[in-house]
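Figure-free illustration: sequence to structure, shown twice.
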Amino acid sequence: MATEPLYQRPINVRGNQMELSHDSFAGQSALSNDFEGKLGDTQVRLAQLEAEREKLERQARECSELNDKKKVFLSSQVEMSEKLSNAVTLIDRELVAIRTELQHLEECRDAFDGNLKKIAKFDPESWSQENVKANLDKAIMIMDNADDQYDQAATYFATMRSGSIFGKSGKKTIHAETGEFLTQLKNGLAFNLPIITLGCVALVIYLLK
């Protein structure tokens, strides 16, 4: 039996085309599925990155806010520490001054109370004629001593909060004493002026005789 030449064998072109088309479609479908899968993965990754970016930005804002609050706190801490420290120092000084003033006021009060009791005992009407001079000298000395203590206390407490207890001024100044002396001198001259005038007139009349 003779062999049929190959070139005379009919070629199934349509079948081959269908096979090629099927293979091509299958390849394209595989590529499309692979691309879509990669695209989906990429989109998921982008979403993750966007979420991470937003998280990092939120954390950065929170850190910035915390740093700002920290700076404000540190500044306020230094300012408040200085303010409170100065206040504590001044309060301590004031407490020492108050305690010292209180102690001296108590001593002054005891001294005044003692002088008051001594003065209250003075009763010149009950003194006999024999001891009136001695009692009077003693009483005057006690009165002068009490007056000196009062003036000393007034001068000492003049610049303190309790200075108003003793009035506007303590011990008399030189100007005050001079003014008082001039006032008394004027009053004495006014009182004695008629007598002095009469004396002068009498002297003139006596000399003219």
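We now fold a second protein in the same way, so the two outputs can be compared directly.
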Amino acid sequence: MIEPNRDGEVWVFAEQEDGSLNDVSLELCGKARELADQLGVKMAAVLPGWNVRELSYRLIAHGADQVYTVHDTELEHYRTMTYSRVMCSLVAKHKPQIVIYGATPIGRDLAPRVASEMRAGLTADCTDLDIGDYTEAKTKKVHKNLLLQIRPAFGGNIIATIVNPERWPQMATVREGVMRLGEGDPRRSGAIVEEKVEFKDSDLAVRLVERHREERKVNLKAARTIVAGGGGVGSKDDFQVIHDLAGAIGGAVGASRAAVDGGFISKDHQVGQTGTTVRPALYIACGISGAVQHRAGMEESAKIIAINWDKEAPIFSVAHYGIVGDLNKVVPMMIKAIKERAS
């Protein structure tokens, strides 16, 4: 366990694969910059890899004061033990007060390993982070400027704020898309700090023999328009009308968890707390009741149109425009009108 270091930096684990930064790393840089400014400390990123030093400049442009780079052929591809050795070594050396990771497959694998080794706490799948004070109920002891780790709990029915006053660094994973991705400022200056980490034989026990990667079929985060279907669509065959509307307006196809669980469409298309968080210019929700778990992933869309037969459906509470009716009648009418206007 590392003792609380009130002057410690705010860190972001800079996740990259094949020389490309994951967008969530840049999203987190923006939030980490805010947290560091509130605390009056530096913000840094940790970038392990091989031949990825040039990525440091993007991290600096998005808010990092300095980037700790570790370059080794053993880090060319992600492996749990080598990457956790890097993070643990640098945390022990520099003693940051906050370390945040993207809640990606890599982040969800790496962060618990580091937390366990450092005897630190970890809050998973946060949807927001802030700085604030915490007063212990029994002793009335006040802990100043802690990381407030905010995430849904009890199936999304409440929002929990979690603090870690004793065991540092304070660590959290943050869901992709919940923090805004800024433009970045290429004029920003920062330091690139070259670090060297020695690996133990046990760190190299796993050898990568062959890689197989399946590309995502849909990129919901980048879509300007999304047409999403829910359990109310009815069946996999009926879900074709969602594809037809998306095709008519040049949008991507999304879905609620109910539609995915019902086998109407693959999980790549899921929007919500356990899917992808999106902020398109237009989001059309068809047959989606609007449970809090789904709304958490799309309520910041610029314009929301909801189509549902139930006028009391929660989705209407976040919709800018609502249509009460049978989607199997409404959506074909919309498609016809769009095609006629385009002709």
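Summary for the second example: The helical segments are 23-39, 55-61, 80-94, 105-118, 240-249, 257-261, 292-295, 327-342.
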